[in-house]
Amino acid sequence: MNRYVWMLAAWWVCMACNAQTYALERVNDSLTYLTLTTGRYTDRVAIHKPVFRLETGDVDGDGREEAIVGIIGRTRHDPRYLKRLHIYKNVGGRVRPMWMGSQLGGILEDFRFINGQIHTLQSTTDGRYVEMTHRWRKFGLGSDSIIQVRDEQFNNSIPNNL
């Protein structure tokens, strides 16, 4: 029994140590595959909504990168056709949804993963733009801080050099 447990533990460590990469394969405007490639496995999941951005980073602090995918669509809780964040995780070599966000507060315009945080650019209903940082909480993203508020949009994106 002990020998089996050690073999299983060694296999699990090897799986965790393998390099992994995420990539997007766009088929058409409403079908994109998110592909996870590890040292041994390749898995993909279909995203049946337009995708506008892919970022990767260790969102939950477990030492492994997750895929942060910006999609455009509706949700069960919000019928508006808007930009939203979905986060996917490697679970045993398979792509699995970790969080399918409907809203972060404002209207999502863009995002980046920088220094362990998700930086978002959001617009408000009164025409202002807010750059915020978000961190993973026990389940879902929580707002950390407001970086800046502007009356005009800055290049429709968050600067890459934060």
Short account of what is shown:
This protein is mainly β and 162 residues long. It has one helix and eleven strands.
Could you characterize what this model shows?
The chain is mainly beta and 162 residues long. The chain contains one helix and eleven strands, in the order αβββββββββββ. The longest helix is centred in the N-terminal third of the chain and has 16 residues, at 2-17. The protein is globular.
Question: What are the key terms here?
Answer:
single chain, 162 residues, mainly beta, four-stranded antiparallel sheet, 53% strand, globular
Shape category: globular
Low-confidence stretches: 5-11
The spatial strand order of the largest sheet comes to 4-5-6-7
**Percentage beta strand:** over 45%
Q: Which H/E pattern describes the elements?
A: HEEEEEEEEEEE
Provide the helix percentage: under 10%
Q: Treating each run of at least 4 consecutive H or I residues as one helix, how many helices?
A: 1
* Average predicted confidence as pLDDT: 85
Q: Let me know the number of strands.
A: 11
Q: State the separation between the terminal residues, measured CA to CA.
A: 51 Å
- C-alpha Rg, in Å? 18 Å
Structural class: mainly beta
How would a textbook summarize the main sheet?
4 strands, antiparallel
